[in-house]
Every structure is written in structure tokens, then in C-alpha cells.
Specification:
Number of helices: 12
Number of strands: 21
């Protein structure tokens, strides 16, 4: 099934479309944001169609700013922040300066839906063109110069029909896979929480401060941070939100300055995140994977177990990931933008555990096995999601280069 003849015409996007910029009404005038005109930013581009926006503005806001209203049914693209995002708006919508409306000068020459799918196919080129140290953007001349293949109107409509049908199937497969992925984690979390709420014979309730102390880390100086070295500074980014050690790859911070001996960690040391750098991170724990390699940084609590306490690392690591424990940590936290807790506050949290090490180890072994099985299942689902995303991009590329020679449904069936 071919889509485009290899002898097709190309035109510059700027010749076929108006590229309309936007702006932000003054935030000092609160009345500007009490209207009923949708005002879109990159944050609203979560889906192919923008059905609602976080903010709505007034007609005065439009008149007194550089924002513009894009008519319903047209395409908007991100040209600054969120490069590569493309959406259609389902109602007349004003846009901010990070977006541009791409409006065909004549829908008898270029249909909006064909334009939308073609822009999706070149989204990676827009993203690659981005420049800027902290906020990447693309210049208007580049966007206008993009060459779009322009077949007849009937051919455009035929291509759109193929893509709409194919992508409806792919998107449904993605939705189903995402549900399965979320359900897999929910099953484990439900079982995990039940283990620590039903307890059992030989369990005791104690405050965390009665069985251990929590030591603050050292404030390592950023001027000694490096991209390479012998010692790695652990940060909140070293924790997964669901617990465990995260290898940060290129984001690893090595340290070249003088290091106090008391802050070089040993293998098996147990740490807890005392700051919420990312949602869900507060209270997360990790077990240090190697000796004489990692440094105990500030905002991370080192759990120092009392001599008389029976403690299995894996057992308490799982307990720290229960809904009860995380909620208890949240109640101790303070701060508006970034929430923090402290060793003193953590010490007052009540936890339950068996007093026999063998009982702790039996429970942690069961949980480790189940978590491993769930992670394997999640890996399968994630690979399927990646394959579906690649399939979408492959179909788009083929659709606009005349290489789509067989039904996309066949490729979808192979992935699913």
C-alpha cells in the first residue's frame, strides 16, 4: 500500500501556512486571568488534542498583550520549551510565547489533519534544532523553511485516513499496556501493605528512635564536584521514588575535595531520603551497593542500628516503602516548594516488626521474589510501550516518504 508517489512536490511550511506567535498577559493584573478564553502553554500539550487549559484569560488580556487566539481545529507547536510537541486545539485558544499556531493559508491546498501528522513526523528534527543553555528553542526562519511534501488534496485525505486508523489501534494498545503496567505495580504494593498491616505472632510496635538513630550527612562543597573521580556523592537523585539505588549515569557527581572519614559509606549502609527533590521521594530508602565508593551527603539520613536491635536491611527497606510509613514521613515534613524532614521527627514514627531475624528474613525473601517477578513483568510491558512508540514514528516516516508498502495493522499485530 503506497502512500505518496516518489515524484511529489515539496513546499516550504512558511509558504503554505501562517505561523502565529503568542504571549503572556501581565501576571500583575489578576483580573486578566478571570476570563473564559482558554490560554495554552506547553504544560497543556499532554495529548494530541488540547481539550482544556490550566488558565483562562479575558478579552482585555488579549488586547493588552502579545498573545493571539488560534481558531479551533488548528495546530499549535512548541518552539521554545517542550520542543517537538504538536497538538490540535478543539476550541478557540490563546497561546503563550513558547507556542506558535500553524494555520494553513488555504485548506483547499493543505488540510489541517495532514499538516498535523506531517509535523508529528518531523518533531524530532525540530527538537534536534533547539539551541540554548537552559531553555532550548528554535528560530522562526528554521520552522518556516521546513519542506513539506504536498500531494493532491485527495491523496492527503487518503494518507490521513490510513494514519488515523493505524494510530487509533496503536493508541489503544498503548493505553491497555499502560494500564497493565500500573496494575502490576499496584498488585505488589497492595501485597506489601497487607504484610505490614496484618503483622503476626512475635511482632512488636516501636518508635523508630527506639531501635536506631539517624545521622545527618556532610555538606560537600559543589566547587569540588567533578564528572569523574574515585568517590561518588549520593544525592536524592540516587534514590528511586519507590526505593532502591538509582545509577544516575551521566548525572553522577564525583568529589575531588577533602573527605571526612566518617562520611565514606560502607556496603550495606542504610540511607533514607529526608528531602522531597521529586514527588514521592521523601522517606525513600536505599542500601549502599559498594564499600569505599559512596559519600554520605547532607539531606540523607544514615540509619545507625542500636546494638540490641534485630535488623534485616531488606525487611526494613520494604517497610519504608509501605503507604503507612511514607504517609507518616509526609506528616513530619515542612516546607513549601521543597519539603524536608529531620532525624528527630523521623524518630517519632511508629513501626512494626518481628523480633526474630529469621522471621524478618523469611518475609523479605518472599517480598524480594514477588518484586522481582513484578519487575520482570513491568520490563516486558515497558519494552512493548517502547516498541509501540517506535512503530508510531516508523509509520509516520514511511507515510511521508512513500515507503509505507503494507498495512500498518500488520506491524501492530507483530508488536502486540
Amino acid at each position: 500500500m503506497s502512500t505518496l508517489s516518489p515524484h511529489r512536490n515539496f513546499c516550504s511550511l512558511g509558504d503554505l501556512c501562517q505561523l502565529i506567535g503568542g504571549g503572556t498577559p501581565s501576571k500583575k493584573n489578576e483580573d486578566f486571568y478571570k476570563g473564559d478564553i482558554p490560554w495554552a502553554t506547553v504544560r497543556d500539550m499532554k495529548h494530541d488534542v488540547i481539550t482544556r487549559t490550566d488558565f483562562k484569560i479575558t478579552e482585555d488580556a488579549v488586547k493588552n498583550s502579545s498573545t493571539n487566539i488560534i481558531k479551533a481545529g488548528n495546530v499549535v507547536i512548541a518552539t521554545r520549551v517542550g520542543l517537538g510537541k504538536i497538538s490540535i486545539i478543539d476550541q478557540d485558544t490563546a497561546i503563550n510565547q513558547d507556542l506558535r499556531g500553524v494555520v494553513p493559508k488555504s485548506t483547499e491546498v493543505l488540510t489541517v489533519r495532514y499538516l498535523f501528522w506531517w509535523l508529528k513526523s518531523v518533531a524530532h528534527r525540530i527538537e534536534q534544532e533547539g539551541t540554548g543553555a537552559t531553555v532550548k528553542g528554535v528560530k522562526l526562519p528554521f520552522v518556516k523553511s521546513l519542506q513539506i511534501p504536498l500531494p493532491s488534496l485527495s491523496e492527503q485525505k487518503r494518507i490521513v485516513a490510513i494514519l488515523d486508523e493505524a494510530f487509533a489501534g496503536i493508541d489503544q494498545a498503548i493505553t491497555n499496556t499502560e494500564k497493565n503496567l500500573a496494575h502490576a505495580r499496584e498488585v505488589f504494593e497492595s501485597y506489601l501493605n497487607s504484610v505490614f498491616t496484618r503483622k503476626g505472632v512475635g511482632w512488636v510496635d516501636k518508635k523508630l528512635g527506639d531501635i536506631c538513630s539517624i545521622k545527618h550527612g556532610f555538606a560537600f562543597k559543589s566547587k569540588f564536584f567533578s564528572n569523574d573521580g574515585e568517590y561518588i556523592v549520593l544525592t536524592p537523585g540516587s534514590f528511586y521514588e519507590k526505593g532502591g539505588f538509582r545509577d544516575q549515569g551521566k548525572k553522577i557527581k564525583y568529589y575531588l575535595g577533602e573527605i571526612p572519614d566518617a562520611y565514606i559509606l560502607s556496603k550495606g549502609d542504610f540511607l533514607i531520603a529526608m528531602t522531597e527533590q521529586a514527588a514521592g521521594l521523601l522517606g525513600s530508602s536505599l542500601i549502599v551497593p559498594a564499600a569505599n565508593r559512596f559519600l554520605h551527603n547532607q539531606r540523607l539520613g544514615l540509619v545507625q542500628i542500636n546494638d540490641e536491635t534485630v535488623w534485616d536491611n531488606d525487611f526494613f527497606h520494604h517497610q519504608f516503602n509501605t503507604q503507612y510509613f511514607r504517609n507518616s514521613v509526609q506528616k513530619t515534613a515542612s516546607g513549601v516548594k521543597v519539603r524536608h524532614t529531620s532525624p528527630k521527627k523521623l524518630a517519632d514514627i511508629s513501626i512494626s516488626f518481628p523480633t526474630k531475624l529469621s522471621a524478618q528474613k523469611k518475609i523479605s525473601a518472599q517480598l524480594n521474589k514477588m518484586e522481582s517477578e513484578i519487575q520482570h513483568l513491568q520490563s516486558i510491558y515497558q519494552k512493548k510501550l517502547n516498541a509501540l512508540a517506535e512503530l508510531k514514528q516508523s509509520i509516520l516516516q514511511k507515510a511521508f516518504t512513500g515507503e509505507l508498502t503494507h498495512s500498518p495493522e500488520q506491524e501492530l499485530a507483530e508488536v502486540c
